[in-house]
Structure formats: C-alpha cells, structure tokens
Amino acid sequence: MAQPPLSQQLKQMEEKLGTILIERTSRKTHLTTAGEVLYQEAVKILQQLEETEQLVKETSLGLKGQLRLGVNTLSAEELAPSLQSFQNKFPEVTYAIHQNESKLLAEMVRNHTIELALVRFPLELHGFDITYLNVEPFYFICDGKKDALQPGPNPNDYYGIANSKLLLPSTEGLGVYHSIIEYLAKFQLNPTSISTCSDLSLLFNLVESGFCTSIVPKSVLQLHAGRKIEAHLLDDPLFNSSYGLIWSKNRTLTKVAEHFLAEFVGIHD
Predict the structure, then answer these.
(1) Taking 90 as the threshold, does the pLDDT of residue 247 lie above it?
(2) What 3-state class would DSSP assign to 214?
(3) Which one of 5, 24, 60, 133 has the minimum C-beta count within 10 Å?
(4) How many CB atoms are located within 10 Å of the residue 7 CB?
(5) Which residue range(s) make up the domain with 123?
(6) According to DSSP H, which parts of 150-227 are helical?
(7) In whole angstroms, what is the distance from residue 170 CA to residue 172 CA?
C-alpha cells in the first residue's frame, strides 16, 4: 500500500538529513531529538514568513518604512509641526532628515538620496514636481540699542541699511542671498559690507551683540522671538521669500513620502 504524501516527504527528509526524525511504533509516533529541533526551527520560519508578509503589506501601505527628507536651513521651523502630526498617525515610520541649502537639497532629490525636500525659492526647478506652500516678507534686523542705525540720504533707506554691516542667512549666489542682493540693488542700498552665515542661532547672537545687521524671512524672525533686537518690515510686494516641497518627476514616491506630503500640505494649506 502506498504511503501517504506526508509520510513520503518525511522519509525523503530523513534520507536527505541522514537521521531519524520520527520514531514510529504500532500505536503512536513521536519526535526524536533531531525531529524536535527541526520542528522548533520550522515554527520559527513560519513565524518569520508571517511577520515578513505583514511588514511587506504595511510598507506597501506606507504604515512602515523610512521617510527620506531634506529641509532648507531657513525652513527648519516649518517642519516640526508636520513631523509631530505625521508621527502620531504613522508611529512605525523612521526618518532620515538632511538639512542643507536648497540647491544642494535639489541635487540630493535628483540623485535619489532623499525623496522630498522643503526648499526656498528661487531655485532651478527643471525635473521637479512642486507644491508651493507660503510667501512671506523679509525683515531688516539690528541690535535695538539707543545708538541704532539712522536713515541715510537715500530716501528708500528708512532703517539705515546703507550704514550697516549685513550678515545674510544664506550662501553667496543661492536663492535667498540672490533675492536680498536684488532688493538692495533695486533701491540702491549699499551696505558697508555683506557677509554670510549659515548658522541662524549664531547670526542672531551676532546681531544682538551689535556686531552686524541682517535681513531674514518672517518665519525665521518668529523662531527667534524674544531676542533683544529691532525688526523692521521691508514692505515691497516684490521682495518676499517663498518656500515649498519638491520631488522628482521621474520617480514614483513611496507610500510613506505620499502620506507625509499630504500631511504637510494639509497643515500648511
């Protein structure tokens, strides 16, 4: 009489392993020591398969995975509320967050180091999908002491910018720096010197100490509320700072990135 398929498979496995897995008697069968080891390992494999299947499903739905995100130095304060809200909804997601200048972040999106980048405009945007989020004015800031800067002979120089040493919060030649330089040229404002500083905390410390002045977007100023400085709105409708999220047109976003994009836009809409 032919053996049942399971018995045949067990017999073949015993022959392959060169050991007895099940001891058989006329009344019952029981596992040998080797058979018990095989059984326990098989249970582990089945559990791992179930866990892997669940992980793949959750990853495909964006419930797990890694969010690879870049944020411009001047826009970091915009990120925290969105990340907190996103984490509450997707607690199993991990993060790889890069902070840098917008131009470098755009390059990181192009080479797939990150999926999304929160950047400041203007910026070369060929090959990107874009969600514009906000437009905000610039402020001229100085130390606020009694010997504060006085307006110069230029009728457009309300706050004495031409008599100041400017320390700008951007790398020379990049978007925000370029916007500020264009504004100064438009109104023929010629500060005694123009320098740059990528560390915002240090920049505000230096302004507060009287070492320099600066021009910053409104959101950056709000982040440093409470500083002993004076802030003056530069009220020109064409002089503003805009920011948004960019991602590659040539790659489909992961579900994790899609969920974060929806969350971020929803909060800042």
Answers:
(1) yes
(2) strand
(3) 5
(4) 13
(5) 12-133+243-267
(6) 175-186, 200-209, 218-223
(7) 6
